[in-house]
User: Fold DUF4870 domain-containing protein from Halomonas eurihalina.
Amino acid sequence: MNENSSQDSIVVESNPKPDTTIPMVIYALHLAGIVTGGLTSLVGVVIAYVYRGKGPDWLDEHYRYQIRTFWIGLVYFVASGLLTFILIGFVTWLLAVIWLVIRCVKGFKGLQEQRKPDNVDTWLV
Assistant:
C-alpha cells in the first residue's frame, strides 16, 4: 500500500486572493443610491471608511475611490438640486447620474482585474 495515498495532501496558496465582496457591495450601494435618494450610498461610504486600510494597497485604493465618489457625488447632486430652480439642474442631475455609473463600472472592472481604479484623484471619470 502506498503511504502517500493514505495521507491528505494540503495545498496552501502563498498569495490568497483578497476578498472583493465588500467593495463590490459598496459599488452596488452607490448605484442603488440613484433610486434611494442617496441613502444606500451613505451606508456604502460608512462601510468604506470602516474597511479602508485593512487590505492590499490596490484594494485600499478602491475604498478611497468609493469615499471620493460619495463626497464628489454629493457635491454634484446638491448643486444639481439647487440648479433645478433655473431648470438646468435636470440636465446636470442626469450628467451626475451618468458620472456615478461610469465610476462604479470602472471600479467593478478594476476589482475584477485586481488592480486599483484609474484616476482615483480626479473629479471626473
